[in-house]
Predict the 3D structure of the following.
Amino acid sequence: MPLSSTLTKAYIIDAVAEKSGFRRKKSIDTVEILLELIKQSLASGDDLLFSGFGKFYVKKKKKRRGRNPATGKEMMMRPRKVVTFQCSGILREKINTKYLRNR
């Protein structure tokens, strides 16, 4: 795991290369293809399920009243889509087990 608490694309590429035996270029291509498939799926409005990991949902947000934080002026925010994530029970259990052991 990287020294920081954020998993980066560079770290994932290195881990794919190490664990698969792929050369770095092939690992880069593999990760880029995977990320592009994920982006295309979410951009088209499809949900994305990784069994044992979780599910990414595309949710539609309605038009709503908001406030500009810089000016304080009220404004109408346009409808938009957001991506949300719901982790699987397996991942939730793994996270909580590790958390409870480290307390």
Remarks:
- Helices lie at 9-20, 24-43, 89-101.
- Residues 15 and 88 are 23 Å apart (CA to CA).
- The chain has three helices and five strands.
- The two ends are 20 Å apart (CA to CA).
